[in-house]
Amino acid sequence: MSKFFRETVALSHSGALAALQAALEKANSINVPQCICIVDVSGEVIVHFKMDGAKYLSMHTARAKARTAASINSPTGSMTADFGLAAGIASHGGVTHLPGGLPIRFSGKLAGAIGVGSGTGEQDFEVARAALTVIGADSV
């Protein structure tokens, strides 16, 4: 391995669309309209979708959850509320402690993240996990 480069894994737009479709199907099956955001490893949005009936403000939290999960390479929701509040203020809402964000990894390598919002934290995670399963990402 060279010290001058590293190998990376990237989520394709086809993978993002397949993950989105699986998330939409799961949200429909549990009857919870959701906002879903999938980002690349740097936190840039690949796809962002608001289902009919999903809460408007959840568009922002879904994006923050995805960016946070990509940034920390870990599920969201484990920060203390105080730290999460401070991080949210410092990042102008770009980071959140709310549950519902999962990293997307293939063979342990970070490829991006998904953030889901508008349900309970567990419902958000359930929808996100369905997306990871369909694209063959590592389970979280």
From TrEMBL:
Official protein name in the record: Glcg protein
Pfam families per UniProt: HbpS-like
PANTHER family, A to Z: PROTEIN GLCG, SLR1406 PROTEIN
Organism phylogeny: Bacteria, Pseudomonadati, Pseudomonadota, Alphaproteobacteria, Hyphomicrobiales
Gene3D superfamilies found in the cross-reference section: Haem-degrading domain (3.30.450.150)
Superkingdom of this protein's organism: Bacteria
